[in-house]
Amino acid sequence: MNDFAASLAARAFRLGRRVFSRPRIDLPLAIGLLILALMGLTVLYSASNLDAGTVGGQATRFVIGAVLMIAISRIPPNLLRAWTPWFYAIGVLLLVVVKVLGEGQGANRWLDVGVIRFQPSELMKLAMPMMIAWYLHPRPLPPRWRDLFVALVLIAIPAFLIFKQPDLGTALLVAASGLFVLFLAGLQWWKIGAATVAAVAAGPIALHFMHGYQRQRIVTFLHPESDPLGSGWHILQSMIAVGSGGIFGKGFNQGTQSKLEFLPEHTTDFIFAVLGEEFGLVGVLALLAVYAFIVGRCLWIAANARDTWSRLVAGSFALAFMVYVIVNGGMIAGLLPVVGVPLPLVSYGGTSAITLLAGFGVVMSIHAHRKWTP
Amino acid sequence: MNGRGELKDERERRARFGRRALAGFAIMLALVMVVAGRFVYLQVYEHAEYSTRAKANRVRLTHLAPPRGLIYDREGKLLADNVPAFRLDVIPDQVKHMDAMLQRLAEVVPLTDDDIRRFKQSLRQHRSFEAVPLKFHLTESERDRFAIDQWQFPGVSIAPYLTRNYPYGPAFAHVVGYVGRIDDKELQHLDPDKYAGSTHIGKTGIEKEYEDLLHGTPGYEVVEVNANQRPLRVLQRVAAKPGKNLYLTIDERLQQATIDAFAGQTGAAVAIDPRNGNVLAMVTVPSFDPNLFVNGISQADYAALLDDEEKPLLNRAMRGGYPPGSTVKPFLGLGGLELGLRTPADTVLSTGTWYLPGSSRGYRDDTRYGAGNVNLVQAITQSVNTYFYSLAYKMGIGRFDEWMAKFGFGSPTGIDLPDETGGVLPSPEWKRKTFKQPWFPGETVIAGIGQGYWMVTPLQMAHALAALANGGSSHTPHLLAATGDGLDSPEVAYRQPPPVQITHAPADLEAVKQGMLGVIYNPAGTAYAAGIGKGFPYLIAGKTGTAERYSRTTEAYNTNKNLAYLASRHRAWFICYAPADHPQIAIAVVLEHGAWGGSAAAPIARKMLDQWLADTPPSERPPVPVTATAATPAASAPTTP
């Protein structure tokens, strides 16, 4: 018995040493992420009214995510690629489980597994590009009509499940992460253009077939001023917070908008506004620069990857990551309707942070193994 | 093999990816620039503006609950009104120690456990700077006491609001219903935006049925507050849109006259305009005061209502189920004609007892030696059981059910009130499902005189009679006549579903009508002795019904004629419509402890008819048949001896 335990421990130790002794993390990317995490925790500390518990919880998640990231970076990409269909299937299964198990009214996005609660839709943000890349990987590129069709079906299934939760914002973002793979795979520009035109044209037609109340939802979505009690109020308060911050901001923990609880959800979806109020334009541009650097680095890694799957996964993950930032920033600044999109690695929330860091683990694995992957 | 655009070469793939990645990065950077540009605009160019707004405009958003729509009767009398009242509001983020404050406050203004529980519930539903109602309907002394001690309770204030008032009290409790405070269960499925600031919701009756129309749309106020959270000025105000006013088909005077006619006896009455299904009166006696429920009924009041043996909370008119008794005979008689089983001239011999063919089981008439040979008109007039026993038997339960269901028996009428019950129209399937027993032929026979398992609601009965009176054309009964937006905009009339035509045979209907006229005007008629046709300017067609509350244990004739004894055993029905030639009102009356339909229930119907005549403006009344009496059974009726 003891022998067994000892051998198990020894194995675990050897595995741990293999994984962590020579971490193959990409240093520029890691530094970029570290800066981002520290900025995020600083803003969160202020946004949560100097609540150490909130910040500690988030920091713990970052540590868990970082460990996961380092572990994944040690796994060769061809192994990750082989696991991809399972990862995708489990993700879809969890989405179905959430739909079935979800009780009560309103949106069902969370899965309760004893100690942890997580959102399968966040998992899908990573599983989606991996799956589409897996499917396109052995096939001629740019994708032919039939392959394109299969890929679109693979994108549509989880997107539809998330849409039915209902969570339109996340559904669109998850779908986008799959579409980016098609874009990076060289899908012809004229097809992209035609699809865009078709989507734009379908809008009014879809609007025509909607019920009155559904149409009202869309109108509210597009014109938040028409909903002054709900999302319109959020946007107004958010713009006051950002605008009053000015160039240099009011200083750490000095934001009146968030302190007086005018700003809703100031630790999650609206945390960017806290940054804008307390650190001003300088803080906002610095944060955007860090994001741009991270995305640029990921794309550089993608361009230097040795196989199609690696390129497509790293590239689309990077583009999707930037889209989250743009959508959240656009919402905070009153450019886009209020949709529940967190600011990556800054907003308070577990699943998102851990999944994103796992995604960076995949990117790092691709970089670390570029030399000997065929 | 490979198409034009396909890339075979790995190097080419890489190059292509590189171009795409670069293009993607360029697009992303461009979008980031747009977002960054927007931040520059907000934080540099608009900074002064937003800075002012953040500093000076520490604004609060206050919801303005919409005034609830009013409810009127057909003549514009207010059945449900809004009156000003006062309540205690608490702004949570101005209270440091909520529990301690509530404890101290309770010494000044009494707070029930219920008040506190509901308050804590709604605390979770509001933003911390929004006022949350704590106690409704403060008395004057409570207001005075609080005003003196107000300085001790920062964040607590007296706020005026509009509360529902039902000026007619019990008279319309079962029709108009009442509003009450929104409870936990309702909170879960209410649209939080629509009910922001609202505290009450329709619980029963019209108040519940037309909640969507009555509620209205909330408004809001953007209020500037100073550092101490005191409101300074209103920056923006969007008024609430009041709910729609409802105009009902019901007539307050007829309703009141009906209640008076019951003189405290337990029962129900419904009057419907057969031409359009308008409900003119819908009465349940006893009733209760709906005002008690508006701001939370006290335990004692509620217990008193629940413990009352006559169950005043029961809406007898549409939820009370009673065996219809002989009132079904006109409907069955018409069915016999329609299905070709009888002609109006066919006679049946009534000897006092009718035997099921091939059986010694006897079914009795009301008179010991029977009524002799009777045709349909006589059978209805004298309520001869034998005629209908044999007709029901001949028809068979299948056709019987099918026919009666056409008049709406056995299913809710679809009136615009919540929680209507459908009574019971027994069928073999129904019995199998309910009792797991087969159907016996004898049960078909007693169904022919409205006994057995058959249960109807007074509303169903009035609805069926209205269809009969309206030439077999059935309108869904309804209470809403029109909606209005107040003084300025025109009222919108209720859109009625098209009627359902049950029969097209005027001759058949005429025969049944003659029988029902006989009930009132023929000396042999079951309601003749009550004299309800006397002195009324129009002809009345009616039918009595006396249903036994308990089944008889012996076959012997009961000779106990003591009225109190009979009343304890019977439910008395009377149904009628008038004027018989062009019916404008159909009435069903049931008394829970009525000895006989003719003597106990019919006089109530007559008082309703008298009031209806008084209510109808002379221009809308049908011409009085001055000489027409010669052509009616009334002429053949000798004067009372």
How would you describe this protein?
The complex is a heterodimer of chains A (374) and B (641). Chain A is mainly α and 374 residues long. Chain A has 14 helices and two strands; from the N terminus they run ααααββαααααααααα. In chain A, helix 2 packs antiparallel against helix 12 (271-303) and helix 12 (271-303) packs antiparallel against helix 13. Helices cover 72% and strands 2% of the residues of chain A. Chain B is an alpha+beta fold. In chain B, strands 2, 3, 4, 5, 10, 18 and 19 form a seven-stranded mixed sheet that branches. Chain B has a five-stranded antiparallel sheet with strand order 12-11-23-22-21. Chain B has a three-stranded antiparallel sheet with strand order 1-8-9, with no helix packed on it. The N and C termini of chain B lie far apart (114 Å). Residues 1-7, 551-557 and 627-641 of chain B have low confidence and may be disordered. Chains A and B meet through helix 7, helix 10, helix 12 and helix 13 of A and helix 1, helix 2 and strand 1 of B.
